Design the sequence.
């Protein structure tokens, strides 16, 4: 299930770094560790977007000017979602970069129809490679049209599905259909306008800073329904638990897909 968390922004005009996903990852992990459920503290199957709101770019970063900003948080476990929200809403306010945010409400996205062919957009960067220490492989550019690009995403998705432990060996074997096809018209337009769809992002893991290449572009994914549902809920690629690889359905109207989400404020 995917939940939109709405925050009141107390200091309109404040900013975060342009690449602020690592700050969100630190906030999310801090909220998870704040609680007292040792099992859920270790739960890795969640994903979240970048912060959404009315913004302007300056040399100091990304400035938010809307009175409210939104974060999409997603996990297949209602227990985990409720645990995270319960701990978050215990906090009177949180700081993200220079932003001062007050948790206000949570909205549940109604489940869309998932098929074996889905066109997705990236609402946070898609990372292919998880590098080792002192390893530059994570920054390597891989052309989205190549089999290597799709194969790396297939391999990481299968590893995560196996670790998730909800599917039998027979079901896992049936998930061999997997092909990502980028929107070539979009990529050509980006190249013609000399803009970028792939950038280097910082990631922190065990207090070590890594640099990874993230991709943001629309694509069509051919896969079984179970795989489509998993990547839509849990993200795709590397570092999904750090907010990378969150997808949304292309050409959908997000404003008509939410209802108020009720969760127990106390465990």
Sequence:
């Amino acid at each position: 299930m995917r939940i939109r968390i709405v925050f009141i922004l107390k200091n309109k005009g404040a900013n975060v770094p342009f690449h602020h996903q690592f700050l969100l990852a630190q906030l999310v992990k801090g909220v998870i560790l704040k609680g007292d459920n040792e099992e859920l503290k270790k739960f890795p199957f969640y994903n979240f977007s970048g912060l959404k709101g009315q913004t302007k770019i300056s040399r100091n970063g990304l400035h938010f000017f809307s009175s409210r900003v939104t974060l999409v948080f997603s996990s297949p476990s209602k227990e985990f979602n409720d645990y995270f929200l319960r701990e978050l809403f215990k906090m009177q306010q949180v700081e993200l970069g220079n932003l001062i945010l007050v948790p206000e409400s949570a909205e549940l996205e109604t489940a869309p129809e998932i098929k074996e062919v889905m066109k997705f957009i990236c609402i946070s960067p898609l990372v292919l490679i998880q590098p080792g220490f002192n390893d530059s492989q994570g920054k390597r550019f891989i052309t989205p049209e190549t089999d290597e690009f799709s194969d790396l995403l297939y391999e990481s998705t299968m590893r995560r599905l196996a670790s998730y432990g909800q599917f039998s060996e027979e079901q896992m074997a049936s998930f061999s259909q997997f092909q990502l096809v980028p929107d070539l018209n979009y990529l050509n337009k980006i190249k013609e306008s000399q803009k970028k769809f792939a950038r280097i992002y910082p990631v922190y893991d065990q207090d070590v800073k890594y640099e990874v290449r993230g991709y943001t572009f629309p694509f069509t994914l051919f896969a079984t329904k179970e795989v489509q549902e998993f990547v839509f809920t849990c993200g795709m690629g590397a570092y999904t638990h750090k907010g990378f690889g969150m997808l949304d359905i292309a050409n959908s109207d997000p404003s008509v897909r939410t209802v108020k989400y009720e969760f127990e404020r106390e465990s």
